[in-house]
Amino acid sequence: MYKKILIATDGSELAQKGVVHGLELAKGLGAAVAFLTVSEPFPTLAWGGAMAGYVAADELTNYQESARKYARELLDKCKAEADAKGIGAKTLHIENQTPAEAILEVAAAEACDLIVMASHGRRGLGRLVLGSQTAEVVSLTQIPVLVVR
Q1: What is the pLDDT of residues 121-147, one digit of tens each?
Q2: What is the C-alpha to C-alpha distance for residues 133 and 118, in angstroms, rounded to an integer?
Q3: How far is CA 42 from the centre of its chain?
Q4: What is the C-alpha to C-alpha distance for residues 123 and 139, in angstroms, rounded to an integer?
Q5: In 3-state terms, what secondary structure has residue 86?
Q6: Which of 36, 47, 83, 136 is the most buried (most CB within 10 A)?
Q7: Nearest to residue 83, comparing CAs of 38, 26, 2, 147?
Q8: What is the helix (H) or strand (E) element at residue 4, kind and residue range?
Q9: pTM for this structure?
Q10: Burial group, residue 35, by CB count within 10 angstroms (0-12, 13-18, 19+)
Q11: Residues 6+ apart with CB under 8 A from 107
């Protein structure tokens, strides 16, 4: 049924539930997985004043280095979980994009036939205020999405 599953994670406890669920599904189906984590763009509008360019450059470098280190550690952990279950896995870190945008692009580029991601399931004002990357992926993709709560 599904041959390649994209599992999106941000490393949170909730996202880990999606990783576990996606791996169990992949194992049961004999599917390969691609793990994806995304580092959002640095919030440059938060900086102001005459020295903003100098401060922001240092902060940007720190942000990028920290994001890369975090992504590497997270994806290494996910890959180890897949290896332990005998599941073929690839890891991907996309920088400077919103998660939904990156998930959609990677799913298409990697020819994934299912996307697995976690969601808090917020409704109403909470969803409007916090945004919903999951809702955006679900509404814009042609690929089936399994949402783990």
Answers
A1: 555 554 444 458 998 999 999 999 999
A2: 10
A3: 16
A4: 15
A5: coil
A6: 36
A7: 26
A8: strand 4-8
A9: 0.87
A10: buried
A11: 6, 115, 141, 143
